[in-house]
Amino acid sequence: MLYFDKLQVLSFSFHDRVHTGQLMSRGLSDIEGVRMFVQSGLVQIVRVVVVIVAAGIFMAQIDWQLALLSLGFVPFMVYRSAKLRLQLRTTWRKIQDALGDLTTTMQENLAGVRVVRAFSAQKFEEAKFDVTAKEVVELRMSAARTHARGGGVISFAFLVAWAVVLWVGGEKVISGELTEGELTQFFFYLALLRFPVRMIIMIINSTARASSAGGRIFEVLDIPSEIDDEPSSKPLQITEGVLKFDNVSFSYGDAPALSGISFEARKDHTIGIVGAPGSGKSSITNLIPRFYDPTVGTVSIDGIDLKTATVLSIRSAIGLVEQDPFLFDGSIRDNIRYGDIDASDEKVEAAARIAQIHDFIDGLPEGYDTELGERGVGLSGGQRQRVAIARTLLTDSPILVLDDSTSSVDAGTDARIRQALSELTKGQTTIIIAHRLGSLQHADEILVLDNGKVVERGSHDDLLAQDGHYKHLWDIQRGRGVEESE
Question: Residues 357, 424: one domain?
Fold first, then answer.
């Protein structure tokens, strides 16, 4: 649970850098390796120590010199075990990294199975998987060989100790220092050490695996989240719903995305944002709920810098619909209700009506209880977007952000959704990012982005009069019939 909980709070920049397969491998294979060691390895270590100490005491009571000879191999065993553990730990780390790569390959293949088959790339994917799988097998064989060699040396050392005791003990019996019975009893206790010797060889491998697995897990647990609450952070209390970007610049690593962005959106006020792909529209979307922090400048709500507010309160105040929405494996009802777990069926259906998806759902054999496949398989892109809109409407957030949320629906449906939203969003602050410019005709202000900068701003009519970027985009879309609903 600790590992899973950590993944929930790590910043989006972390998830941008790390492959999902590597995180899954840590959460499954590595945790299982640690669990096996904790459940059985620690118990076996205690048993080994108890048996060695007890046998040593009993042997010393019979003959302390023979006892020292018998246990003389223990320091060598400890040294050899430590060296073997380090060797195996390095190998197991490589194995676990390779397993992560293998999981990533499989996860990407399954997620993109339609693309793979569309391009008849099954053989290519099989070859790619085979390379990684062979690497895992070779590394496991290497670990097995290292383990076998090290274990053989330890077993041989024990046999040497046994032979020395037999030789010296035999001389003691001949000289009368020991009786045959005492020597036999001594060898009985010495035979008890065969169990801990065998167990030590097994424990070394288990410890090496758990050690490398634990290291990989703690690499994630020890990462500080770039987006986190400060001790002085306070819950965000929204009264006016004024969202403000003040000279905001932002970069993904070394790649600049936004430069000098400033605007203000208020309650009952709609800001539209347009621009070519890569112009920075979605970067603005990511900054509003504080998925990322700006590199320069501030993003504030009601004059409160979002960096000083608790993350939970910020995201609870913002309803977000993304261009490519994610739907969970479950019923349509449960997916919509994700916006408000306690919402009644009536509220769920009301949100679906506003999102123009109710009639479609109602026509399904199982209606709202229809089970969706993974990621909403079974629904078209437009249907998934409308379910996501309904889900966000249930949050009843004072700030609503629609990131090209109707890009996959036809123009007529888009117009009906906008009309319904215009009534529902009264009293809300609304940000609409759209490719279809007709969706923004009634926005209070439209920002036109180009290369991360605001190059034009104004109402729809004002921008057409400027005869600039916006007018150019408008003419292109009109010429291609994108605004066919008008």
Answer: yes
